[in-house]
Amino acid sequence: MSELLAETRRALRHRLATGQVQGRAPSVVAAIVRDGGPVWLESWGRDTGGDVQYRIGSISKTFVTVLVLQLHAESLIGLADPLGAHLPGTLADGARIRDLLAHTAGLVSESPGPWWERTEGTLRPELTDVLGSAPREDRGFHYSNPGFALLGALVEKLRGASFGDVLRQRILEPLGMNRTTLLPVAPHALGWAVHPWADVLQPEPLTDTGRMAPAGQIWSTAEDLSRYAQFLMHGDDRVLDAESISLMRTPASAPDVTSWHSSYGLGMELRNREGRLLSGHTGSMPGFVATVWTSPGDDVAAVVLANTTAGLRVGSLAAELLDIVADREPRIPAPWEPLESIVPELLALAGPWYWGPAAHLLKPRADGWLELTSVSGAVEGRLRPTGDDQWVGVGGYHDGEDVRAVRDEAGAVTHLDFGTFVYTRQPYDPAAVIPGGVLSPWSTKSSLRR
Question: Where are the membrane-spanning stretches (predicted)?
Fold first, then answer.
């Protein structure tokens, strides 16, 4: 890990300090992750530090999503499965698991009864107490805390253990997040509300929300969330691989048509910040606000935790801290290295391929994958090998599509079949299969005369 420049560190400190003062937060702690680990951690205010726990609110939903995607990776569930196939008896039996993760299942935002964030979970002991009404017909994006309570219950049932135990065993321990818990463990910050018209602190309740815990109960530290942010950028095969993590930051619903700057994936918020794509989550509970933003393209992440109910725009603060590092010290690419070895069959596929008149390039990668790009070099997707002459598309238009190389009787590749899209070595090659069913002028000249 390379250290930040002194002027970058001072800019980060200045933004953190002004944020704490202007937001009138009793304390705020922030961290920057780059090149595989934390490169900056600082706090401003009273009684705080990198090992002090704060409540992280809805960042908890990303942990739930990781646990659900683990079930999917182990083929214990399908993302298109209805919840009732694995957890029957709720009003959301027909809701797809994918839609619950994406907040597109038509569920209400909150549980019935008194506000769950400020009341003990003993008021909602059963799953039937979590969701008070059936999903609505309009199933566009609508943020739902009860939906993630149901997903937490799904994890409990299929793992045969409590949500807290599964969380610890399958995420926290492998990642070394020893100071992340469902209930506070000293040292931890106290939650405060700041009087709107006077600099006076008012205590907020620290409740155990019971079955609603998966929606926002988790406590963590800046140091632990730095480890977690690194995982959210690059994955970790002990927990969840990078390909599965990429599902979380793939938009699952249309963004707000009035802004087009934000969307939501699977359990993860997405932001388009003047071309910089951020993924992560904000969080709030009485007395606390938090944010983790990652920018995989810059290999930079920012964590911000504060103990105030309102006033500090912690999501914007975290994004600005990330911008400071990414803009002042842009990512330096790794040196170009030639491939030490390559399968001859893959090398034979390298170079230009045409879908009709449109030119594309295939490039073999060191990991055995193929990369599909435009002639200008823009990546259009990757191909993951699944067998001899077979791949599956990852990203781009052909995401999830089967791809195969078609050979003639002599064993030479005649064309590539991208889910019925035919790519050939020459545009409209008269001797090859015609791409997309478009008639070739060479092969139809005589018929056109008739």
Answer: none
Three-point CA angle 164, 166, 169, nearest 5°: 105
Tell me, yes or no, whether 223 lies in a domain. yes
> Does an H or E element contain 72, and which?
helix 60-73
Beta-bridge partners for 374: 360
338's CB contacts (< 8 A; 6+ apart) are none
Give, in order, the Cα–Cα distances in Å from 273 to each of 252, 276, 296, 303, 319: 18, 5, 13, 17, 9
Predicted local distance difference test score (pLDDT) of residue 257: 58
Mean pLDDT of 379-396: 92
**pLDDT (tens digit per residue) in 354-377:** 988 889 999 998 888 999 999 988
Whether cis (ω within 30° of 0) applies to the bond prior to 187 is yes
**Cα distance between residue 215 and residue 221, in whole Å:** 18
Beta strand extents in 299-369 (DSSP E only): 300-306, 351-355, 358-364
Task: Tokens for 119, please give them.
Answer: 């009341």
Give 395-401's long-range contacts (Cβ < 8 A, gap of 24+).
395/246, 396/372, 398/372
Domain boundary among 270, 298, 328: 328
Q: Is residue 378 part of a domain?
A: yes
Tell me what pLDDT residue 339 has. 85
Q: How far apart are CA 9 and CA 293, in angstroms?
A: 18
pLDDT by residue (tens digit) across 58-106? 999 999 999 999 999 999 999 999 999 999 999 999 999 999 999 999 9
Shared-domain flag, residues 299 and 406: no
CB of 435 closer than 8 Å to CB of 429: no
Q: Are strands 276-285 and 370-374 parallel, antiparallel or unpaired?
A: unpaired
Return the closest-CA partner of residue 261 out of 252, 270, 253, 249. Answer: 270
SS3 category, 246: helix
- In 3D space, the residue among 49, 21, 12, 14 whose CA is nearest the CA of residue 311 turns out to be 21
Domain tally, the chain: 2
Tokens describing residue 414: 């005649």
281 in Cβ contact with 271 (< 8 Å):
no
Phi then psi for residue 240, to 5 deg, are: -160, 135
